Amino acid sequence: MQPTPEQIERTLDRVLLTVEKPGRYVGGEFNSVAKDWDAVSFRAALAFPDLYDLGMSNLGLMILYGIINDQPDMFADRVFSPWTDMEAVMRREGLPLYGLESKHPLRDFDLLGISLPYEQLYANVLNLLDLAGMPIRAQDRDASYPLVIAGGHACYNPEPMADFIDAFVIGEGEEVLLEICHTLREMRGQPREKQLRALARLEGVYVPRFYDASYNPDGTVAQVRPNREGVPAVVRKRLVPVLPKPFTKFLVPHVDTVHNRAPIEIMRGCTRGCRFCHAGMVTRPVRERPVEEVVAAAEEIVRNTGFEELGLLSLSSSDYTEVQTLVERIAETFDGQGISVSLPSLRIESVSIDLMDALKDGRRGGFTFAPEAATEKMRDIINKSVPDEQLLAAAREAYARGWVTIKLYFMIGHPSETLEDVQAIIDLAKAVLAEGRKIHGKKASVNVGVSTFVPKPHTPFQWVPLDTLEQIRAKQDLLKRSMRGHGLHLRWNQPNETLLEAFLSRGDRRMGAVIQRAWELGTRFDAWQDHHDHAAWQQAFDDLGLEMDFYTHRPRPTDEVFPWDHIDIAVKKSFLTEDYLMSQEGETRQDCRNQCFACGILPKFKSTRMETPAEAWKCPPVIPRHLRGKQPGEIIPLTAVSSGR
User: Fold this and answer.
1) Is 0.70 topped by the overall pTM?
2) Is it true that domain 5-236 has CATH number 3.90.550.10?
3) Where exactly are the structural domains of the chain?
């Protein structure tokens, strides 16, 4: 029998001071929403299956929380994964996982919505369901349990988690979430099968139990096809043609979070076409928010929260059409108030001197660029062509304007990469540091983050293998030996963690049994380096008779059926294939703001049921003011760029 909210409160009063950071588990933050449980007709628990400290910085979770709570007859509560000390207390005390606002057990809700932005959360999802007192496998949950849905970027390949999730939202959730809530409310009391059939009729909703996967003798996927009549063979992603107004009533956390700032998404989608980038492919087309809307949202956020930093978010913030005007307007609006602005995702080729000047209040955080590769050969392969001189010129100007630290992000493990290409990363980082020392002397520094490339679904590189552990270690050893000395700081990720991301993101439905076995062996918090247990995952593969290498290090022929081929991101597989073959020849595509390459996104949404002109999707988009008249690949002379005023 489930405890009452009052019983949960009494238990928390008794145990919270025995765990680390009890503020994670109490709720009641400024701007949180608490409604009369009995006065609403639908109740949803929104879960982020990691620590409160991370989940409270997740913009998507906050947006969905606001959308549901804006409905007078609905209530959205929040839940996060408890840290290991709190989990031990909960299991000892028989305390089920509960909503922070209501203190109701998760079993009491109509819907449990789980955010899955990255694959390392999979084992945590099983733990979360178990702590809630719910069967972890979807087939074992009837309509007496909350319906479990999942959404987020990791769900574009839903198959590894198909055994545990009732329905996936493929694509953007702002509109379909309320459709799901209304459907479930209307279907309350009906058998789970009927509820799921109703959900499967919604665009962008994938119900895995309505599909069967079959396999070839060599273990590859033969097909994933419907097992019921009336179910679509292919599930197309849900897209919001015009972005709604930004969420502005952010909750003010009780404890420090990973990002102590208020985020505003200024643009969704990207036209650059980097071949490794999953987000750049699945979020097409580009949609921008108007400057006035962003500025008004910034004012509301500061008024509602007191945050002192605003993060203007997108995949490529400096490509926003009016980025210069936007930053200047925000600076004018908050002049003298101590509010700083950050653009966490800047492209070297679209940063101007005036933009640097407008961002001068953000100098404390360092200036960040992501070249990804350091040789012309590798840049052509990944379709991210940024000449060294352009990076050095940008770094020179940033240092000259008061930044002491430059942050550079690279990847190793791209197709056809050699140790010479890795050495070029070292040489380029040292060249950037040399520019800083000309201005700041020994105070100048360069922080270099080097991640390992994982070939992701729905990208032109989905056919390539992951580097072997030996290759990864050899490249990291070279970086560690050479990236030394005062002012150079190197960060990298562990090879076994890269393996985890690779086999989870590229897995088929058989991966569900591996995930369950690994969880039974104790895996938790795989995204946390000190908690990742590679031996447990290896044992899980061995116990199930599967090979890790089959999912990680095996190259794919272009005609192979992928586990995610029945998920339509509205970018044609033929386009991705063509781009993959071009990469093998070192051929590049220019930014599709300059030329449309018919990836497939626009025709599929010209007939959208939304009464929105195709021009609103900006495909191809207008060119940012400070880039107009420039040719693709042309070095922008920073000292000569006009602000456009």
Assistant:
1) yes
2) no
3) 5-236, 262-510+546-584
